[in-house]
Amino acid sequence: SWALFFDKFITAYANHGVKFYGVTVQNEPEFPAPWDACAYDVSHEGDFVANHLGPQLEKSHPDVKLLFFDHNKDHMVKWAKELLAKDHPASKYIDGTAVHWYAGGMDRLLDGAQGNPNMHRMLSELDIMDVRKDHVLLGSEACHCPTTGYAGGDLSIAWARAMRNVHTMLADLAAGSNGFIEWNLILDSIGGPNHLGNLCDSPVLAVPHRALAAEKDFPAQLGFEHAGHPFGEVHGDKKTREELNAEGSPAKYLDLGVVVQPMYYYVGHITRFVRPGSRAVHGLVGASAGDPEVRTFRPKGQRVAGGGINDLARNGIEVTLWPCEGSTRQEWLLNEQKQLQVFGHDWLGAPTTSCLAKKADKDFDGLLLTTCNTGHIKEWAEPQKKADSAIIVIAIPTPLFAFYSNFASPANFFANRRHHNTWTMIAATAITIEADPDNLQQLQT
Predict the structure, then answer these.
(1) pLDDT band at residue 366 under the 50/70/90 scheme
(2) Which residues are within 8 A (CB) of 347 and not within 5 positions of it... i.e. 6 or more apart?
(3) Strand partners, 443
(4) DSSP class of 173
(5) In the list 95, 268, 326, 399, which could disulfide-bond 65, CB 3.0-4.6 Å?
(6) Is the Cα dihedral 418, 421, 423, 424 positive or negative?
(7) Distance between CA 142 and CA 138 in Å, rounded?
């Protein structure tokens, strides 16, 4: 019955001239969400595809692609190893893999680093399992949460989210994704409507109360929005059209009741120039530019790290390796508990702090930032004094994969066989960090 519903749904749209490119089996099958949802484990999704949905679509809609998984990057490879295996009866019906950016929780700051190595591992597994070369790998959902840059009100918030968005797009495309889908095209000022308060961001926001033609008492929230203000007041509503225009949200659209956020223009830059049929070009960045002492964000002689506040100092963020660039994202503190600690701010500017995890995460296969609770973190090292400098040697208990996506760059650290016939990986048993001998607490990797 459920497979037949898919069939009739696609047919109904086709009767109105709307052709489907493809469908996924289920949105976020591992999440029994409080909204419309259906949970599957890998075995049950495989059974449904093999015995019901696959045969039904092959019979009635052979041109409509069927993509499986459609969930976060952490378990993508695990599902692929089972359902794409040649001896699995579902594999012959599966045309591609859909994957989401998220890694859980409401603090969804897209960056391009989270789960990116798993994207490369996925392509490697497709080759190992000899999956056909036209298998689609699609970024099917991504967005910033909670609420909107406009609601946050701080200019740096909206622009930071825009930059994070393009970082993720570049990283996914460089890792082999065939596309990138923004979850929302247009929402209201707080990121709704949503009947369960799952408020997120979008490139364009509807703010009809800001339109020049709006009646004097036109409400800031329409009747269908029931979320209220769970994340505080909408700071953007307090700004004049001139202030918003100066910050990058054009007044000509605001006068029509629409906020065009900076994110829109970043997405537009990619969609204008990365056209269908484009291929990723390999560019390996293996060292800092020029003199080894040169740091992009901290010129020689400058003791303070640059690059702005570190808004990636969050528990659960996947740690990356990259040549020294002098930013706050590479500034660490060896604290009194002998933990490597990093500091930053959340999306509203509240201070955050995290420490390097004790061991590799079982799903991401790399080190994550986590709580600095001493019961969870390994004591890394004692400083060993040298004549004119200090060297901190950090023992890595498991192989550490080198990967990166921090500041937007077309260069990707990994390459995959399907695009470039190469695969780059660094496994390390120790990392050496050079520090100022007069201040061993401040470490600049």
Answers:
(1) confident
(2) 107, 109, 152, 157, 160, 161, 311
(3) 332, 435
(4) H
(5) 95
(6) negative
(7) 11
